[in-house]
UniProtKB/TrEMBL annotation:
InterPro entries: Myosin_TH1. GO terms for cellular component: myosin complex. Pfam families: Myosin_TH1. Residues 47-217 form the TH1 domain. The lineage of its organism: Eukaryota, Metazoa, Chordata, Craniata, Vertebrata. PROSITE patterns: TH1 (PS51757). One of its GO terms (molecular function) is cytoskeletal motor activity. The gene is Myo1h. This is MYO1H protein.
Length: 217
């Protein structure tokens, strides 16, 4: 009986300590922990660099709203901008690298070039998010095959864990994130598909190989 009482008291004490800790968390710290839990669920044991990312706090955004071109702000007026980060976008056909911004609002993801919106993806239509198990920063945003979309979006992000976590939380699509090995297929448009191959080499690079595939080293 004494042992049972002691165990019960220990559990009650621990519960009270946890409750006190949670209530004392600053709002910013609480958001960090919530985001890191999602990152763990998506990447832990699956992608290289995850353990090193644990000690790196996520920023609220990499660029401020007023860093965006006024024309872009005008085009997405009424939407609450949550996160903005510089990215490299690879063309779906020739795989040419282009500097872009990824803008995440409460309802959509935008790929932005200076004063132009190059592509808009509503979260409700998002079909999946893919990244590799290696240490590259590639993420593919899979979109539906319809007239509104040109094809899947191939991006390279410096802060891959942060960016993918923000995207899947805002889109509420955590279950659609896939960490792949070896290769993945992406939609080019007009019913066509392309292949991306992930490999290991002496230095990071992304290029179109002789077979026409996008190779990420």
């Amino acid at each position: 009986f004494f042992m049972q009482t002691s165990e019960m008291l220990q559990k009650i004490c621990m519960r009270n300590l946890v409750r006190k800790y949670c209530r004392g968390l600053a709002a910013e710290r609480k958001v960090q922990l919530q985001q890191k839990v999602v990152t763990s669920a998506v990447f832990s044991g699956k992608k290289e660099g995850y353990l090193e990312s644990l000690s790196q706090p996520f920023l609220e955004t990499r660029l401020k709203e007023n860093d965006l071109n006024p024309k872009v702000l005008q085009l997405i007026r009424g939407e609450n901008i949550k996160y903005v980060t510089p990215v490299i976008k690879y063309d779906r056909n020739g795989f040419k690298a282009r500097e872009r911004l990824l803008v995440l609002t409460q309802s959509s993801a935008y790929v932005v070039e200076m004063a132009k919106i190059k592509q808009k993806i509503e979260y409700s239509t998002l079909k999946g998010i893919s990244t590799s198990n290696l240490s590259d920063g590639i993420v593919v945003i899979h979109v539906p095959e319809d007239n509104k979309q040109k094809g899947d979006v191939i991006l390279q992000c410096e802060h891959i864990f942060e960016t993918v976590t923000k995207l899947c939380i805002l889109a509420n699509k955590q279950s659609l994130v896939k960490v792949v090995k070896g290769s993945l297929r992406f939609r080019v448009g007009s019913g066509k598909e392309g292949t991306m191959v992930f490999t290991v080499g002496p230095e990071p690079q992304v290029f179109k190989d002789k077979t026409g595939q996008l190779t990420v080293v």
